[in-house]
Amino acid sequence: EIPSLKKAFKKAFNIGTALNTAQIEEKDPAQTAFITHQFNMATPENVMKSAILQPKWGEYNFEIADKLIEYGKKHSMKINGHTLIWHSQLPSFMRNIHSKDSVNTFFTNHIKTVAGRYKGKVFSWDVVNEALNEDGSMRKSVFLTYLGEDFVTEAFRLTQEASPNTELYYNDYNNEQPAKRAGCIALIKKIQNAGVRIDGVGIQGHWHVGKIPLKEIEESILQYADLGLKVMFTELDIEVLPRDFQGADINQRMTNNTALNPYPNGLPENVQQQLADDYEALFKLFLKHKDKITRVTFWGVNDANSWLNNWPVRGRTNYPLLFDRNNQPKPAFYKVIALK
Ligand code: XIL
Fold first, then answer.
1. What is the pLDDT averaged over residues 92-115?
2. Residue 136 CA to chain centroid, in angstroms?
3. What pLDDT, in 10s, does the model give residues 108-119?
4. ipTM, 2 dp
5. Which sites are catalytic (predicted)?
6. Which segments within 24-75 are labelled E, that is strand?
7. How many domains does one find in the chain?
8. Rounded to the nearest whole angstrom, what is the distance from the C-alpha of residue 193 to the centroid of ligand 1?
9. Which of 154, 167, 235, 239 does the annotation list as catalytic?
10. Which ligand 1 atom sits closest to the C-alpha of 307?
11. What is the pLDDT of residue 251?
12. pTM of the prediction?
C-alpha cells in the first residue's frame, strides 16, 4: 500500500487537495479511495467560484458545491471554500455591470447568500483572492473600481456576519515575494485595524522547478505569523516545463500539438530528480515551521488533473504534482514522505 501523506504529516499540518467535479461526484470509486487515503482537506478547484454558483444575476446553482459538502462529511475531510471575491471567473453578467450600486449589490448578496448557505459547513473561506499586483498595489478589478480599496475589509466583515464560526483567509500568488508581500501585510493590517477578523493567509505556491524561492518563503512564514495569522500553502504545484514554453505560439499549437510536449517520453531523469529535490526542500522548510503552518494543499490529485496541462495554453503535458497520471508516487513523493 502507498503510504499516506495525511497520516505522515498528521502532527504537523493538514494535507489538502483541489477537487474537480468528476472527483466530487465520485465517478470512480478507486479514485475516491485514493484521495481519501492521502488527503484530509479539500478545496473546490472551480465549483465554488462565483461564475458557477451564480450563473445569472440573483440565480444560484449550488448542486455540485452541495455535493462537495456531502463528500467532506462522508470522508471526514474539511472543506476550504474557494472563493467569494475574486476578479476572475466572475459571472458573465458582470461584464455589463457599470455602476457602484449594482457592483455593491452583487458583492453584498453574493457573500451573504453563499457564505450564509455554507455556514457551519465549510471549515474556512478564501474570502478574497488575488487582490494585489506584483508591486504590492491593489489590482485593478470591478471591485476596486466601484467600491474602492475597502472592499477587502468589507468582504471579511460580511463573511464574518454570515458565517461567524468559519475561518477567514486572504489568498494570493507570489505573495512570498518582498514587494507583493509588503502589500499583503499592509492589506492584512488594514483589516485588523478596522477591527475585522482575519484568521490566515494563503500563499498559493505555484512555483517552477529549480527556482523555489525558499528564502522568501521562509521570511513570509515568519512575517505573516507575526501578524497573528495562520500560514497556509494553498495551491501547491511545481511547474516542470521550461519557462519559454509558457508562451507557446498559437499557430504552432494548432498545427502540431506535440510541440507542446517537450517530454514525449515522460519526464527526463534529471528533471524528475530536481522536482524531488525541490519538494523535499519545501517540505523540510514547512516542517521547520510547522507551529505556524496549518495546511499544505496541492492544486490537483495527480499530474493528469493539473490545471497546468492547460494553462496558459491548452494541450501542454505537465508533471507538477507528487503522483503521476496513474496515481503512482513519483520520486518526489518518497522524498517528502521520508521527512515526516
Ligand atoms: C484554476 C483552475 O485550476 C482551473 O481549472 C481554471 O480553469 C482556472 O482556475 N489561482 C487560483 C485558482 O486561485 O482558483 C486557479 O484555479 C489557479 C490560480
1. 98
2. 19
3. 999 999 999 999
4. 0.99
5. 235 (nucleophile)
6. 41-44
7. 1
8. 31
9. 235
10. 3
11. 53
12. 0.96
